[in-house]
């Protein structure tokens, strides 16, 4: 390395990198993103396994048909065959010519790309691209230093890429919004391919600049709503889903997370015109009270028609008794209403992190953030899949000028009342539940009766007074069931490793 005094050496995973010592350089090392890269390697490795399984399943189905197996018997045989497969072994035995093709569309220094090439099993080819000339030059230097030469290095505008060739994996990791690149990405991914997208424009997605968010993602956030962290993910997924739909394609979220100062989603993309027709059932609007945390969600479309299988416009919700006080309603969205995660895949990812057998997934030995990933994925696996958005408990207590009750007691009250409840991976005080707004407020009414709030602030015209003077209709029992007492010793919300941990 020439002029070594002007560069610093960074070792991450399997890779040694040189970065300019000048912090003002356009090409820099961001230690905050190590967890992002580690998670990406884990998720893409598992995507490679699923892809390899799909290939052998397709070949076996063809073989059964050639043997004359009837349609009736084929289904049973295929189920038995798929159940017998070990995905890691299938990938390890895959013909290298059928390996994974990856596009790192905004590669910067090439660190992510090099780690992908060296650590993800079954990788056939990596295309490294960046529009910035300094980034391309730095990537080339780092490729040579790591003896990784069997790749393609390009200096192109990702927004202008054609749909050919198509890649099995496309990674979009911009510093800012990924919105300008989504159209090209959903066209450039293979059927069943894996799309990884990061957005760091949380001021827009988080509601500080709703007009900017709407311009980028065609969705309106709700400023100061307690669930903005999750809404940001669902806005991005809505944008991906509607962009893909233009080309007869659908998305299937595998993992959607908020980490540090950004959001990251991993989705599979499929050619699926029937799925596009049903998309309106998976998108919806949020109706948020202007005075309290109560909210309602309504899909954009609904099933109807003579046989109940046609698609019709959705209806405005009848708020009725579910509105706590006489208040106006803000409308946000549209957002993605479907699951954020594929829990089967998340469970496999957790199992791989726990495994001591490096032959199962060799790349695990390079993962430096295992404990943080274990906490993140555990939280994701515990989340309710069919309950979009969450309540922020301190925000609700603040509305009543009350002390915040222990989270475990509120969860217990909801479980004891017959409802389901979980947390949310990015917010320690989040409550995801299928309980109606009224039940949440009933729990807090009973809490406030036992722990009176500051009465001087709760004057007759206050929101708190209007809510607290209603009589609870829910039997509230704060006793904590054993199911909530179980703690597996996993840190779901670990402390940042150093002060000022954020965007560099």
UniProtKB/TrEMBL annotation:
Q: Which SUPFAM superfamilies match?
A: S-adenosyl-L-methionine-dependent methyltransferases
- GO cellular component labels: nucleus
Keyword Iron among record annotations: no
Reactions listed under catalytic activity: guanosine(26) in tRNA + 2 S-adenosyl-L-methionine = N(2)-dimethylguanosine(26) in tRNA + 2 S-adenosyl-L-homocysteine + 2 H(+)
* The organism's place on the tree of life at top rank: Eukaryota
Known EC number(s)?
Answer: 2.1.1.216
Q: What is this protein called?
A: tRNA (guanine(26)-N(2))-dimethyltransferase
Q: Which organism is it from?
A: Phaeodactylum tricornutum (strain CCAP 1055/1)
